[in-house]
């Protein structure tokens, strides 16, 4: 019998070796400690697909607790006042709200992400992906992430929101600094950068909103302003927080899915050759499998609003649960031969986009961007080769590569 403390000791999100390959540790957690308390972060780790999927839909859990309890009532400390700009920005965004505010804002924003609206973007996404890949080809190669993976989703979501092209270079650095606060036990330096980025990003959007009030366009910010007169009205802070969330979520995960996915393909040359030989037929299932096999969001956290029981373990109110998406997506109880990359996998209920009321609003857009990005590279650069093994960025919760150097 494996000791639980030994099992959780292998779960080390601050270790470069663990970040590079967390899957052996996940396997031990699933087998020996599927629901277990992790002292270093004060969280309950949940690692099996069935449990993660169920808890994402369980309304006894929430992304926040402040809609029902004060910090004192919930047994949590007051946030550091120095971090207030970050918390104001984050706490008013769609991802960290619960009903009724979440319902109101999601109903409004979801109109921009209907299948019909997203499909209407396909020609633009195809054109952008083709231009970026042509640029990579003309250069003879380079960093696949900075040359293709990053600019494509940034351009698309910025275009949707109406961010001028000249300003788009500001978005990824702000996003990277803000999402640094989502890592486990962030440092004071990380918090300082997140606060600075929150202030700068908010000020930028506040000025852009003023411009759109004076001169409306066909972009999403103009539509949100126009909706302020109805029952779905957003406050200015809700609008700013929603735009930041859309800009951050609209490219951060897609960038990392592209980089992680190509690294997976280079490590599985047989599957890469299979995909190159049948791009049109395999691409839809390949995109889903690449998201499952090495998901960019490894952990999603929820607060326990009422005592719950998971696999016979009581998790009390006031606890924080860490749902291990990366582990759930490799669970052999749900996926046949889960550690094998199978680009034709048909039965693939991965939870990379989450589930329940916080299911990723932009999932259809992410799938479109990934399909067109992979498709353009596979068709236009069939001889794409890896130059050297990449290194992982130090973050664990949002997991991606520093760079991915390729040649053509």
What does this structure look like?
With 408 residues, the protein is of the alpha+beta class. The chain has helices at residues 4-9, 16-20, 23-32, 49-56, 84-91, 101-109, 115-119, 122-138, 144-149, 151-161, 171-179, 188-214, 220-226, 236-267, 269-276, 279-293, 325-328, 363-380, and strands at residues 35-38, 43-46, 61-62, 141-143, 299-304, 308-310, 313-315, 320-324, 385-386, 405-407. Helix 14 (236-267) crosses helix 16. The protein starts with a helix and ends with a strand.
What labels describe this entry?
five-stranded mixed β-sheet, single chain, 18 helices, 408 residues, three-stranded antiparallel β-sheet
Main β sheet profile: 5 strands, mixed
Mean pLDDT, to the nearest integer, reads 94
Percent range of helical residues: 40-55%
Order of helices and strands: HHHEEHEHHHHEHHHHHHHHEEEEHHEE
The helix-and-strand class reads alpha+beta
Strand order of the largest sheet: 1-2-8-5-3
As a percent range, the share of strand residues is: 5-15%
Sum this structure up briefly:
Helices cover 50% and strands 9% of the residues. By secondary structure, the protein is of the alpha+beta class.
Helix-strand blueprint:
Elements: H1 4-9, H2 16-20, H3 23-32, E1 35-38, E2 43-46, H4 49-56, E3 61-62, H5 84-91, H6 101-109, H7 115-119, H8 122-138, E4 141-143, H9 144-149, H10 151-161, H11 171-179, H12 188-214, H13 220-226, H14 236-267, H15 269-276, H16 279-293, E5 299-304, E6 308-310, E7 313-315, E8 320-324, H17 325-328, H18 363-380, E9 385-386, E10 405-407
Parallel strand pairs: 2-8
Antiparallel strand pairs: 1-2, 3-5, 4-10, 5-8, 6-7, 9-10
């Amino acid at each position: 019998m494996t000791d639980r403390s030994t099992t959780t000791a292998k779960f080390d999100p601050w270790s470069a070796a663990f970040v590079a390959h967390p899957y052996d540790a996940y396997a031990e957690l699933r087998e020996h400690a599927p629901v277990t308390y992790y002292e270093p972060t004060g969280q309950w780790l949940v690692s099996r697909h069935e449990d993660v999927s169920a808890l994402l839909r369980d309304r006894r859990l929430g992304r926040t607790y402040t809609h029902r309890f004060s910090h004192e009532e919930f047994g949590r400390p007051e946030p550091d006042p120095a971090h207030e700009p970050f918390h104001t920005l984050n706490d008013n965004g769609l991802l960290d709200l619960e009903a009724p505010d979440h319902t109101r804002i999601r109903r409004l924003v979801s109109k921009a992400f209907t299948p019909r609206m997203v499909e209407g973007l396909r020609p633009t996404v195809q054109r952008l992906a083709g231009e970026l890949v042509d640029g990579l080809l003309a250069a003879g190669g380079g960093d696949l992430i900075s040359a293709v993976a990053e600019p494509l989703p940034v351009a698309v979501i910025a275009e949707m929101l109406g961010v001028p092209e000249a300003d788009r270079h500001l978005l990824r650095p702000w996003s990277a600094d803000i999402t640094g606060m989502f890592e486990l036990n962030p440092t004071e330096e990380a918090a300082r950068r997140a606060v600075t980025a929150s202030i700068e990003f908010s000020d930028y959007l506040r000025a852009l909103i003023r411009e759109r009030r004076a001169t409306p366009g066909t972009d999403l910010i103009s539509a949100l302003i126009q909706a302020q007169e109805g029952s779905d009205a957003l406050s200015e802070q809700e609008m700013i927080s929603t735009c930041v969330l859309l800009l951050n979520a609209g490219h951060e995960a897609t960038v990392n899915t592209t980089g992680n996915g190509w690294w997976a393909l280079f490590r599985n040359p047989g599957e890469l050759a299979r995909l190159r030989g049948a791009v049109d037929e395999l691409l839809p299932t390949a995109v889903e499998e690449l998201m499952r096999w090495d998901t960019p969001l490894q952990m999603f956290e929820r607060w326990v609003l009422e005592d719950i029981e998971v696999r016979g373990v009581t998790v009390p109110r006031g606890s924080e649960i860490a749902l291990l998406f990366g582990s759930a997506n490799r669970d052999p109880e749900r996926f046949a031969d889960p550690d094998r990359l199978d680009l034709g996998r048909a039965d693939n209920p991965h939870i990379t986009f989450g589930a329940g009321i916080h299911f990723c609003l932009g999932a259809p857009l992410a799938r479109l961007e990934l399909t067109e990005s992979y498709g353009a590279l596979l068709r236009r650069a069939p001889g794409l080769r890896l130059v050297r093994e990449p290194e992982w960025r130090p973050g664990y919760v949002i997991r991606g590569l520093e760079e991915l150097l390729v040649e053509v």
